[in-house]
Amino acid sequence: MSAAPTETPVTETPVLDKQPDTTPGGGQSDAAAAVKGVPSRGPGLRARFAGSPKALIVGMALLFAIVTAAVTGNGTWPGGLEVDVKTPLTDLTDWLSLNRTTHPVFLYFLLHISNFAETAYLSLVDLFAAMGWLGVTVVVTLVAWAAAGADLSRRALRTGAIALGALALCGVLQMWEPTMETLSLMTVAVIASAVIGLLLGLASGLSDRCERVLRPVFDVMQIMPAFAYLLPLMLIFGIGQPPALIATVIYAVPPMARLTSLGLRAADPAALEASVSLGATGRQQLLTARLPLARKQMMLGLNQTIMMCLSMVVLASLIGAGGLGDRIYRAMATKDMGMALTAGISVVLIAVLLDRSTAAAGEQLQERVSQVATRAALLLRRGVWLLALVLFVVFALFGTALGQEAWPEAWSVDLTTGIQQGVDWITRELSFMANWSDAFARGVLNPVRSGLIAVPWWALLLLVAAVGWAVGTWRAAMTGVLCLALIGALGLWDASMDTLSQVFAGLALTVLVGVLIGVLAARVPTIERVLRPVLDVMQTMPQFVYLIPVIGLIGQGRAVGVFAAVIYAAPAVIRITTESLKQVDPTVLEASRSLGDTTSQQLFKVQLPLARKGLLVGVNQGVVLVLSMVVIGGMVGGGALGYQVVYGLSKQNLAIGLPAGAAIVCLGLMLDRLSQPREKHGGR
Amino acid sequence: MHSSTHDTQSNPSNPSKHSKRIRNAILAGSAVVGMLAVSACSAASTTNAGGSDDKVTLAQPSWAGAQANIAVAKKLLEDELGVEVDVRQMNETAAFTAMDGGQADAVLEDWHGNPKQLKTFVEKKKSVVSAGELGVKGHIGWYVPKYYADKHPDITNWKNLNKYADDFKTSESKGKGQFIGADPEYSQHDTGIIKNLDLDFTHVPSGSESAQQEEIERLYKAKKPFLTYWWTPQVLQNELELVEVELPKYTKGCNVPVEKADCGYPHVDLEKFMNADFAKNGGDAAEFIKNFKWSNEDQDAVVNYMTQDKMKPEAAAEKWIKENKDVWEAWLPKK
Amino acid sequence: MTDPNTNTAKTTEPTAADPAAPADPAAPAFAVRDLWKVFGPKADRIPGDPAHQALSTAELREKTGCTAAVRDVSFDVRRGEVFVVMGLSGSGKSTLVRTLTRLIEPTSGSIAMDGEDVLGMDKNRLRELRRRQTAMVFQHFGLLPHRSVLDNVAYGLEIQGVGKAERRAKAQEIVEKVGLAGMEERRPTQLSGGQQQRVGLARALAVDPEVLLFDEPFSALDPLIRRDMQEEVIRLHREEGRTMVFITHDLSEALRLGDRIMLMRDGAIVQLGTPEEIVANPADEYVRDFVRDVPREQVISVRRAMRPADAAESGSGKELAPDTLVVDAIEAVASSGEPCRVVEDGRTLGIVDHERLLAVVAGIDGTLADTEAVTV
């Protein structure tokens, strides 16, 4: 980072006169003072400990843990304190298997839900088939264009073009049919998640009591790896779309609910008071003021919900959801990398399509607040919506007559062979990476794991309590300790320490990579632009597609899971780093330049310290994301808790799968609370 | 609330309104539940669209042999009997759940990997019934690559495994030799074998079949030693030369429970299963599936078309069908 | 019960409000008696307890954890007047104005609007009151960003259930009245602060309320625009004669707009009177401090500045009305070169000469006034 492109003439001139009096404008000299106030190097370690009793206590707890670990050598949770959950869970599995199709609870309640879900899904599949490829492409493109404003602005045209391109590419890649299946699943799941999320969001946004009850529930729902509840859902609802859809809804509801609630609570109090002062009833106030004011947040929530639905719909192919995920799953079975990657690309395309359309729709809604459309634009927009509706009906009725049901074969390209060759080439040429991963496992993963296992359980509880208390509140400490104790009681101490060691290693790498790239992106706009689609792909490409080839590269084991975790979690950290660096008060930065700081001085003395809070949020998100992916690593030799969940899932064994799932939730809650910056942040 | 800002106070959610709102919510909620209850008075149908008459849903496990079965069966059912076939990817255990719930009609190749489910669904609940043997014999065992066995011929007996344990050490094996375990879904009792035969090996599980295959291929390419759970027939059997390590002979029940297991694996006659309703009312399609029976060689042929000649399953099936009319004609229901 | 802090001569003795009486056209717009608003745990116990009442705000908070935002306040708002409540931030003035329509529930005391007991109203009656009898203008505007100017102005009517065409027509009328014609279809975010507050004002006017309540409406605006808006309020008041309760922390604004000013400190009334009374006769050191920099000649009238005329003077000299401000009298005295007569109904009340006028400007008239001022 020697040549800083952000360097401007400002850097040179004021260096000559460092007298504060000559600095023009009071604000700037304040800023300069602020820069000077940022310590060039933190106070000595001892001074810090002396200054902060919290740091001192954490330090002591850490020291205590290390010493006791060295003395005892093995600190696993004592068997006497374990609780037997296996027997009742085994009984429950048997009962569910035997009664799933006959017991009244299922006949009169649960089966209605699953039949409804399945019927909705199947009708949509039929609908898309009836519309034919032409109908779907035209209507979706029109809707995307209309949602983005239906005008000739760059945004609207781009959104329409993205929709058209994404669908066409799915067709060209011979993935039309599974894409339609995935879209059908998505439609059902998104509608259900959005409605449920909206209702829960309303409840927790309007009532403090509901908020208090629902918030921890959302926390758990977001931290709980989807893997953990696929199993019980499968046991209850069987195989196929219903459990997949229900799992998806559980997974995707929290952002919608959280952001709706946040929007309702963050509404301009003056506007609400004005509404009351004019004599509005509760309902009038809700409909005319609160809900419209929360619209932006709700759109954001919808966008997040849609993206989460997509990732879950793909994962749910493990329990028979069908669609693109199923193609990937099937391709993996025959190690058909070409097919897996083509299906994976289609998933990314759908993700981009949905993300950009909802984001554009949100922006458009916001813009309508700041400027009123002309009459002509308004008419055009209505016209386009109407046209989309008419075309929808026409195609639904006569679609197959106008075009074929599936994408014409002649217009497709088979990339699978090429991709397979490419993958083979990479595996061959980069095989030296196996040594790296081996070194990583031996040099990092193993020592961390042995260390964690060596620390006596009571010393670790103490350490968690100390850290929880230091970073947050006594409540964070309590949650952490309880979670850890529950893990011990479930008899999963060693496996959890194994998982934890992978999380720590993954987190360290993620933060390292994330902050590094994030800093680069914040300083070089070109990098940020280039990075965006790459990050999109990293976040939305189903992990399976690249996990298996990575095994060919570096071998089966924990390193693969950690690698996947870094790929999955780094984009969030990169984005947060970039954002928080860019938000650093420009006057402070200017002042720093005026004092003649070098680029690296600016970075380390001004930008990074000031962006600390944003970075902490990044770490907090990173922890949760890394954990969720390390668990998936159980499918590629990561062992530990993830493997037990996979085992439980594939053998339909609640006794193994459920406690492991619970332990993961506990780990997640603990890590989340211990890494949470003090203010609670809204939706993720 | 101590805060003296009026905003919080001016908010109409003062206690009385607040509790009233909650009361309303509860009322509305119970009304919805009531409506659900009324609509739910009728029992839900337990057979879903998957089990309709004109369409047969086959559950397809991940391995290639099973894909060969399905490809051939699907082609014949559609071309000869005019029955539409829907194939759903799912593992063995899931397949049983699906057959129990009616989301799948049949599975063509079961390795008896989950005795508990057999007991639950076939013996107790009788929602799943056997559709006879597939004709293919499966075998599971412990294998090492041939290049390693050539160098150390005595490794083919389990008693000598400890002697070579050091060769199999990896970063994942916690200081002992690494044993590459199977996809958790497959029938296995390797942890018991290692424990009860006092082997200096660590069972390092594979999370999925493809992961295990990829790992083995990688090690094979690098000519590194490895000891793995493996089975025949298998896609890779012609690409990789593996040698079986002899384990103590299987006797019935020697592997139950897994913790006490101290023996190798049996040769399994792979079996077909069906949804009970389908078996009764499935007509020609059910009859065909009951009759479907071929040999290891037949299945291998199709698998080879798919893996070595890189043919699509449909094309591979078509080729085999063209060449083996005498085999499959016997499967068609007698008119 | 008189407020312990209020030692000023109130210009009006509050007439006792009878909560049982029907809405009475002769009753004051608002009659407030013994009003308390206490925030904090078990706030109810504070007003009735003499021990607590004696404590200062800080002591009370320390002892009970409660904050008394409004302490034992009694006053009347007369029909048609601009009643200004003035105080620094934290003096309880914003809380007070919100208790009038129970946007904040008072802890104890009584409020009557047009003789009708406000605290006894049920939810529907209260809503009616808010919909039709009062309307409020807020410091931070409180506009709905997703609505056009016209729809924001029509919002109150919409709440009342007025049909779309009718309410938009009415809103259009008001929009023109406040000088926003041509901006009907803009969004609030496209307007300047002053324009936004005009929308807030129009929204309040649209429901044709009996009383307009202003909560520091102009304190977020630039000084020049603030002046414009004050003119606007003065104009509206002149044209419509609507009762206004105006909250401000700006003394010059209070003096400009107020028919009467109520000065508050720590939740209690310090002084209530006309601007002239407050400037000329500060009730205590606090008020004196407050009005120290006020250009007295622009507030005080000759009625307060004059001395008795001796016989020789009562026939000659320029005539001035008793309400003439000192600043104008100075001009008259300077131009004519002799003392002027203060005349009411043809009767000479007194004389202002440059000695008396200078005393007002210099702020030493108080001592003179106490001894020599004529009581009329």
From TrEMBL, chain A:
- Show where the ABC transmembrane type-1 domain sits: 179-358, 496-675
- Name of the featured protein: ABC transporter permease subunit
Whether Zinc-finger counts among this entry's keywords is no
> What CDD domains does the annotation carry?
TM_PBP2 (cd06261)
| Sequence ranges of Low complexity compositional bias | 1-14
Give the species.
Answer: Streptomyces solicavernae
Q: Which residues cross the membrane?
A: 55-77, 120-145, 157-176, 182-206, 227-253, 305-325, 337-354, 384-402, 452-471, 477-496, 503-524, 544-570, 622-646, 652-671
Q: What Pfam families does the annotation carry?
A: BPD_transp_1
Arranged from A to Z, the UniProt key words for this protein are: Cell membrane, Membrane, Transmembrane, Transmembrane helix, Transport
Record-linked PROSITE patterns: ABC_TM1
Tell where it localizes: Cell membrane; Membrane
What is the membrane topology noted in the UniProt record heading this document? Answer: Multi-pass membrane protein
Annotated segments matching region Disordered: 1-40
UniProtKB/TrEMBL annotation, chain B:
* Superkingdom classification of source: Bacteria
For the region Disordered, give the residue spans. Answer: 1-20
The record, for Pfam families, names:
OpuAC (PF04069)
As recorded in UniProt, coiled-coil segments are none
Q: Where is the ABC-type glycine betaine transport system substrate-binding domain?
A: 54-323
What are the top taxonomic ranks of the organism?
A: Bacteria, Bacillati, Actinomycetota, Actinomycetes, Kitasatosporales
Bias class Polar residues marks the residues at 1-16
What is the protein's name according to its record? ABC transporter substrate-binding protein
Query: Would you indicate the residue range of the signal peptide?
Result: none
UniProtKB/TrEMBL annotation, chain C:
Its keywords, alphabetically, are: ATP-binding, Nucleotide-binding, Transport
- Name the SMART domains for this protein: AAA
Q: What InterPro entries has UniProt attached to this entry?
A: AAA+_ATPase, ABC_osmolyte_uptake_ATP-bind, ABC_transporter-like_ATP-bd, ABC_transporter-like_CS, Gly-betaine_transp_ATP-bd, P-loop_NTPase
Q: Per the similarity annotation, which family is this? A: Belongs to the ABC transporter superfamily.
Listed Low complexity bias regions: 8-25
User: Which GO MF terms are attached to this record?
Assistant: ATP binding
What's the protein here called?
Glycine betaine/L-proline ABC transporter ATP-binding protein
Name the Pfam families for this protein. Answer: ABC_tran
Q: Does the keyword Transcription regulation apply?
A: no
Where are the stretches annotated Disordered?
Answer: 1-25
The protein's organism comes out as Streptomyces solicavernae
Q: What sequence ranges are listed for the domain ABC transporter?
A: 55-291
Q: Where is the signal peptide?
A: none
